[in-house]
Amino acid sequence: MPKIHYKKLLPKLGVSDLKKEQKKIITSVLNGKDTLCVLPTGFGKSLCYVLPHMITNRNVIIVSPLVSLIRDQEQKYKSVCNTFVMHGARVAFNGNEDVSENIYQDIKNGKKTALIFITPEKLLFRKNWITSIDILAIAIDECHCITEWANFRQGYQELSSIVTWFIDRPPLISLTATATKSTINTISDFFKLNDPLLIRVSAIRNDLSLFVQKKDGIAKDLKYMASISIGKTIIYCKTRKDTEKVAHRLRVNGGIAYYHAGMNLSERTEVQDGFSKGKYRIIAATIAFGMGIDISDITTIIHYGMPKDIESYCQEIGRAARAPDLCANCYVLWGKCDFIVNRTFIDRIFDLQEKAYQQKKSYAMNKYINNDSKCRMNMIANYFDPESKNDNCMKCDICTGKRRYSSPIPGTIRINL
């Protein structure tokens, strides 16, 4: 790590010290080198672009896929440094939406610097301004999205063009929690990364216990989910209708709400804030409640229906146990219909290469669900890195032999059947 007084900045960020991987990444960024980071959720990947900005007082662009992700990052960092947010119709500097042209000019002229959080679409729209300002680095957050969204989201289709915008391009720092070797190669090729430093931390999460259980009818499933929904809980459902059904029929102490993309922004914001602040203890949600959810005290994740692939599954269970010394239980309740739904989705893909790619990912998820002999955490680690060798977790249903795990709390459960 360069001899810069970065340690003086850590208390402002609520951090006592950096992990060795964070130090390597920050050093790489400060040295102007492209960096590709695969870091598990809760590892602290945002520090890898926030600290370089604070150390150098130079602008850092953070390209984020979701408004909710940008909003959370803005709230988290606006008290310690300048934040400039641009997404959709919203523009805000340090949370103030009354942004004049002077702000753009002050940043362009070097009078102000900021963490600039922006969606891919807004980045493309603001190309002329972006290329006129001093930039230390460009961070592509949740960079695995290019493999999933580039086919239908124009902002991601055109995002690779940023490498041609600059005569002397700022270094790119690509960050994700889930990437196979194939995905890493795709990201590197997509952004034409120049001999990037690859920092990869094992997907092993010692603070998570993994369980898989076959569905047993809606009534019994609701009772089972109520019994295992200990502490703050997310129940991921396959459809919007299922989120509402679960929220309406499952009643527990602490309150429950549903969340899906069919709700308007104010409704979704109210539910997310209510969950964060303790108004709701349980959220029944589609995968729309995923990236950008930074709530530290989630202790249970339930998938009511098989996830589409290992990558998505790891992103979603990664929402749990983010506070130090906190552990969480993660359950998948699956049925035969889930396999049919996933296969139907793949059958609708016309591009043969994309179809084969999705089939391969779906097969790995099916193998995980049907597994009855291998440590589940090791299966996940080996999926992302086939050469990884780890001890069994001794916490999952396979390692412990607990194929139907439950911890009911008497007097807290009421089911509407």
Summarize this structure as a short list of keywords or feature phrases:
8-stranded mixed β-sheet, disordered C terminus, 417 residues, Rossmann fold, alpha/beta, single chain, globular
Largest sheet: 8 strands, mixed
Classify the beta-strand content into a percent band: 15-25%
CATH architecture of the largest domain: 3-Layer(aba) Sandwich
> How many separate domains make up the residues?
2
In CATH terms, the superfamily of the largest domain is P-loop containing nucleotide triphosphate hydrolases
- The rough form would be described as globular
Number of helices: 17
Average of the residue pLDDT scores: 88
Spatial strand arrangement across the major sheet? 4-3-5-2-6-7-1-8
Helical fraction equals 25-40%
SS content category = alpha/beta
How many strands appear in the DSSP assignment?
16
Work out the radius of gyration: 22 Å
Question: What's the N-to-C terminus distance?
Answer: 59 Å
In the CATH scheme, what's the topology name of the largest domain?
Rossmann fold
